[in-house]
Amino acid sequence: MINLDISINDKTNNKILVDISFGIEKSTALVGQSGSGKSLTLKAILGLLPNNLSSFINISAPFNLITGKTISFVPQNPFTALSPLTKISKQFFTKESRIKELFETLNLDWRLYNEYPPNLSGGQLQRVIFAMAVANNPKLLLLDEPTTALDVQIREEMIQMLKALQEKIGFSMLFVTHEINLAFNLCEDIIVLKDGLIAEKGKSKDILTSPKEEYTKLLIESNFANREFRK
Predict the structure, then answer these.
(1) φ and ψ at 98, to 5 degrees?
(2) pLDDT value at 165 more than 60
């Protein structure tokens, strides 16, 4: 279990933007509308907050948390995550045998290894980024809406590939998304954020079948056109 306590303050007026405490056992999703504090939480963990913000972070885990070695990050947009002028092979920093193994797991054609990023589709790029993120066997994988730029079918494929990677490598996962349906498909636990605070949290199935807060109900209604799944 990884436990996190995070507070983020605006230095100008000392307004608390995020003040949350939660645990990650296997896979946890942070869900909420834009501005709820999801991405700020990830930036705080990674030490990437802008200069006008300050933070207090307490993380307890059964391993040493060293960013870059035990924590890995998948950004939102696969099209801007890699250098377009550098071959993919030059952007990996691990053994080629390990990369081949990950390409097989992610159904990536090995010929893409020596391509430039602009020659790949969005789905192919995202899978390459997944491979890079887990190449060194992280303990915690942070994902900032990694399927936003992809179409619906490819999103579902990415979710299944993330599950396969987690099963193979055994990392814990913190998945940020505004799409509660994706959170349900990928994660065991869901935390609903509103205005920098936890509005509701629990097991994914419980949140979706018996939401307690009106805000959570509205998120669910906006994500699913067909409500039959909730019965």
Answers:
(1) -70, -40
(2) yes
Give ∠ CA 169-173-174 in degrees, rounded to 5.
165
81-96 per-position pLDDT tens digit: 899 999 999 999 899 9
- The number of helices, as runs of H, and strands, as runs of E, in the chain is 7, 9
H or E element that contains 57: strand 53-60
Cα–Cα distance for residue pair 90/150, rounded to 1 Å: 25
Task: List the strands of the sheet with 16-24, edge to edge.
Answer: 16-24, 2-10, 53-60
> Do residues 117 and 83 lie in contact, with contact meaning Cβ atoms separated by under 8 Å?
yes
Axis crossing angle, helix 122-134 with helix 152-169, rounded to the nearest 10: 20
Average pLDDT for 90-114: 94
CA distance 10 to 219: 27
Q: What is the pLDDT of residue 230?
A: 37
CB atoms within 10 A of CB 183: 27
Burial 56-70 (b: 16+ CB within 10 A, else e): eeeeebeeeeeeeeb
